[in-house]
Amino acid sequence: MSLLSISSSGKAQNSPSIHHLSYTSISGDSIDLKTYEAKFILFVNVASECGFTSQYEDLEKLSKKFQDQLVVIGFPCNQFGGQEPGNEDEIQSFCQVNFGVSFPLSSKIDVKGKNQHPIYKWLTNKSENGKSTSSVKWNFQKYLVDPEGKFVNYYYSFTKPLSEKITKHFK
Predict the structure, then answer these.
(1) Which candidate, 82, 73, 13, places its Cα nearest to that of 47?
(2) Lower Cβ count inside 10 Å, N or C end of the chain?
(3) pLDDT, tens digit, 9 for 90 and up, residues 75-102
(4) How far is the CA of 57 from the CAs of 18, 64, 76, in angstroms?
């Protein structure tokens, strides 16, 4: 799906939007990304047994601090070192008990390969997002989309959620 926009030259151009896609929440509900129109969305593939798992704490802080401008969505994934072995109930409990996570979590998904979730297909392919091709390298890689549903950038796992690279978009 594309949005028609007018470039500075006055010519119409297609700009891909992610808002036509949806995901299944960790509790089993279908969530349309259109729900988050007018906010930035930070997509993060998460895992409970990873060296980066402590980033849940800063993702929660980021989510709370910029709640009027940003939605953080965690996508549990077991494709990197088998570091998310739990089921949805175990994952949700782990996140709430250990990190007080209140931002949305999806059901467990694949972020790469033949069963790649459509959201991650959009995020990682220039032919879908209109801007950049990438591959998810490890847990806690982050993808930022603007309030119009357009791709902004991606950040590898070592980029902390409260990094200026990310927060500069919400000031």
Answers:
(1) 82
(2) C
(3) 999 999 999 999 999 999 999 999 999 9
(4) 26, 11, 15
| CA distances to 60, 92, 95 from 100, in Å | 7, 10, 6
Q: Is residue 106's pLDDT more than 70?
A: yes
Within 10 angstroms of residue 38's Cβ, the number of other Cβ atoms is: 9
How many helices and strands, by DSSP H and E, does the chain display? 5, 8
Whether the pTM exceeds 0.85: the reply is yes
CA pair distance 163, 141, nearest whole angstrom: 13
Name the nearest CA neighbour of 138 among 49, 42, 45, 41. 45
Amino acid at 131: K
> CA 57: distance to chain centroid?
16
Is pLDDT at 6 greater than 60 in this prediction? Answer: no
Q: Which phi and psi angles does 122 have, rounded to 5°?
A: -65, -45
Give just the sign of the alpha carbon dihedral 79, 81, 82, 88. negative
pLDDT one-digit tens code per residue, 14-45: 568 999 999 999 999 999 999 999 999 999 99
